[in-house]
Design brief:
Elements lengths: L27 H13 L3 H4 L10 H12 L5
């Protein structure tokens, strides 16, 4: 039996595989505990998604940026 040729898409120039378009909506209330648990317990499946982008509203983004810069005084 002859070998079959398998064709794979070439990798993107930036080295990342193309990701499917997001199709599922989930509330932050439902998402955060799962992601926090995955990070806390160092689940390997979470590492597969670390380069994925997440869309957030502009006001949430501004709050997150302000929080990132926030340093509590001693």
């Amino acid at each position: 039996m002859s070998a079959r040729l398998r064709v794979y898409p070439s990798p993107r120039k930036d080295g990342r595989a193309s990701a499917p378009e997001p199709t599922v909506r989930i509330s932050l209330q439902d998402l955060l505990p799962l992601v926090a648990l995955g990070q806390r317990d160092n689940y390997l499946w979470l590492q597969d998604f670390l380069d994925d982008e997440v869309c957030v509203t502009e006001d949430l983004y501004e709050v997150l940026q302000a929080f990132r810069r926030y340093r509590p005084s001693a």
